[in-house]
Amino acid sequence: METGEGADGPGGPGLGCASFNQDSTSLAVGTKTGYRLFSVTSVDKLDCIHESDTPDVYIVERLFSSSLVVVVSQAMPRRMNVYHFKKGTEICNYSYSNSILAVRLNRQRLVVCLEESVYIHNIKDMKLLKTLLNTPSNLSGLCALSTNHSNSYLAYPGSATIGEIIVYDANNLSTVTMIPAHDSPLAAITFNASGTKLASASERGTVIRVFTIPEGLRLFEFRRGMKRYVNISSLSFSPDAQFLCASSNTETVHIFKLEQHGPSGDEESPTWSAYMGKMFSAASSYLPAQVSGMMCQDRAFATVRLQMAGQRNVCTLATIQKLPRLLVASSDGQLFIYNVDPQDGGECTLVKTHRLFGADEEHGTGEAEGTAPPQPCQSYAATVAMPTTGPVSATLTGYSEDGGAIKGEVIPEHEIAAGPVCLDDETEFPPINWCRDGSRSGKERRT
After folding, report:
1. Tens digit of pLDDT for each residue in 288-315?
2. What Gene Ontology cellular-component terms does the record carry (predicted)?
């Protein structure tokens, strides 16, 4: 989800990274001068809920709506810092053998991806549970972790030359399956919210496939285009997994609808498209496999024409103010919000444009008219009440709500198992407690 090129980051002005949190209610962005966290629960108003002057941030990930945020900077690309941003305290930090390329987290696991290894931590106490060594070369740090903590599936490339996907159970620490997804190396992978579907795209960027998890069976195949190869930078399911959006280095964002075309439905509504679909299906058995496969692929249900091309961006589908929206954060520091018609699809309507840094220049139609400008971002000191003690030592690899003075509380297991937990820091503890083994060095090395 990073817009930069790993630890090197992009040059000049713009975003070094941008990522939506697990339920797309928050946007985190990093630049050469610091990072910011925004609330994206409203169309008209973009609230900056936290701002830090940590320089050259190229990874910043927030755990749902909690105060836990993970940061990696170019100054120390091998070190991961975990902060409680409302308290202004460091929870812990870990150092690794090489540059950190990606970090993924849910309420059970925190995953750190290096070029040839993957580290899996228990997010409750940051204990290192598993190190996957000698993984295929993964220069972009491509990986995905399901947000559903009940399964915590992890996906990462199984090959550097073809599009194989390894699906790993991060809860039980065992390999689930290997999916031969594409002929070319992988470019993007993502899980749906429940962890039952996995979408992937290759470096060619022409075909997007959706598989069942944990079986690894192909469920859908969508064609983004045929004329040119593109670099797909972002894939994201809608909260109900009925739609899938894909953005690339072109000016078009595609939204695909995940619906099965059963024979009974065709009989009940004999439309022209259903009739043609039957003809193509019958003819495909007489054609070469490559041609018949193209005839069976679905096209985009809805599209968005961005105002620029050639820039990396991150997209997500979210429900904001009870309506389906497409959000696109671009590397030039803009957030675009579009309305999506879930019934008819077609061209999506731009509703609002927000600036993510610098002067806040907003443009919009419809709902955006007549709204007051958003409040300016508070400084770091104004956002959090600084404690009297300094940051937690690097040897303290756990979390407590008070910043490390006493042992924190743990969310009960029955509460976690019941379903998603809303991590409101005013009333609940984020799911990380003080590490009972305070002697850990905070540094992990290959063994």
Report:
1. 544 434 434 578 999 999 987 778 899 9
2. phagophore assembly site membrane
